[in-house]
Specification:
Number of strands: 9
Order of helices and strands: HEEHHHHHHHEEEEEEEHH
Bound molecules: flavin-adenine dinucleotide
Number of helices: 10
Structural class: alpha+beta
Radius of gyration: 19 Å
Helix content: 25-40%
Shape: globular
Length: 300
């Protein structure tokens, strides 16, 4: 399946895969929409471009974490072409995989392509390539669901259940299923939110680590509820459940630090990118600390 083709086509040019048939989804204009209703929540069609998300006033107002994440995806041109469905179904990325055929061949391939060894974790029999999409951690933190459609009909699953923590398998959806829509419950509208992203080139780059944080506060400034999503540091985007410790608490730097430390137990960056795993790990902790502090101490 090809939507915007912004991830698929460069990978095909690198010889990472050569599908016999490609189904172009771009003509499905009925899957290009953003709808918000205070009772039913947010619904976004899978063919909605990342630009449309980044420019949507309702997304900016009600779901700032998704708005911020969308604004950081790739570059303006790629955001105009790239879709939300493609962003959520991105292939996993690795230093030893996203290379030319010649480069990969000199190492004898890797477990994800033409080889038996994972160069990131040579003793491992699974692939550790990292999921590197920016909108997934924001949507995980917002408890989004995805609608899948295929020859056996339609079904809706929590976004968290779309992913597998194996860089080779990646997704739980069947090969003949496509994502048609993403939904965010109304109960998560209006939460404070922010997205922090580590990348080499600020103007255009996949994340080396990404942290999405949402928070709902009480009138007295205490935290009613918070959620934290991570990307680019595991084969799947993940939630940091230690954020539950913040519920009902007044701001405390020690509590923030405690949760930020827990985040690096969940985010386990390996040697999958141009940056070191130690730096990426450290930055997860820094981003979680800064994001929680900023949201908790903001005037809203
Ligand atoms: C230089 C460069 C920088 C980039 N930087 C970033 C970045 O910072 N952050 C980021 O998140 N992405 C980045 N990307 C990747 C990409 O541009 C975006 O993720 C984009 O949103 C992908 O959407 P697409 O429609 O182009 O996907 P495609 O390339 O068309 O598809 C990607 C994958 O999803 C599958 N797919 C597409 N639509 C569906 C669907 N509806 N249902 C099921 N499967 C589907 C395809 O089969 C394919 O496997 C970058 C790409 C490039 C080339």
């Amino acid at each position: 399946m090809i939507a915007g083709g912004t991830d698929l086509l460069p990978s095909m040019k690198q010889g990472l895969f050569a599908p016999r048939v490609l189904i172009d989804l771009k003509g499905l204009r009925e899957l290009d929409f953003i709808r918000f209703d205070a009772r039913r929540g947010l619904e976004i069609g899978a063919l909605t471009t990342i630009s449309a998300l980044a420019n949507s006033q309702v997304v900016a107002r009600e779901f700032p974490v998704l708005h911020e994440a969308a604004k950081t995806v790739a570059s303006p041109l790629l955001r105009n072409m790239g879709t939300l469905g493609g962003n959520l179904c991105l292939d996993t990325r690795c230093l030893y995989y996203n290379q030319s055929e010649f480069w990969r061949g000199s190492l004898g391939g890797c477990i994800k392509k033409d080889g038996a060894v994972c160069h990131v974790a040579p003793g491992s029999d699974t692939c550790w390539a990292a999921f590197s999409g920016d909108t997934a951690p924001a949507l995980l933190a917002l408890e989004a669901t995805v609608e899948l459609a295929g020859p056996r009909g339609r079904r809706e699953i929590p976004l968290a259940e779309l992913y597998v923590n194996d860089g080779l398998v990646r997704l739980t959806k069947a090969a003949d299923e496509m994502v048609t829509a993403v939904r965010v419950p109304a109960a998560n509208a209006g939460w404070l939110g922010t997205y922090r992203k580590l990348r080499i080139r600020q103007s255009i780059d996949y994340p080396l680590a990404g942290v999405a944080v949402v928070m709902r506060k009480r009138a007295d400034g205490s935290c009613a509820q918070a959620r934290i999503g991570l990307t680019a540091v595991n084969p799947m985007p993940r939630l940091v459940t230690a954020s539950d410790r913040l519920a009902g608490q007044a701001y405390s730097a020690a509590l923030v630090e405690d949760v930020a430390r827990e985040a690096i137990r969940v985010g386990k960056p390996l040697k999958t990118s141009a940056s070191t795993m130690e730096y990426r790990r450290q930055m997860i902790q820094v981003f979680v600390r800064r994001a929680l502090t900023d949201l908790w101490r903001s005037a809203n």
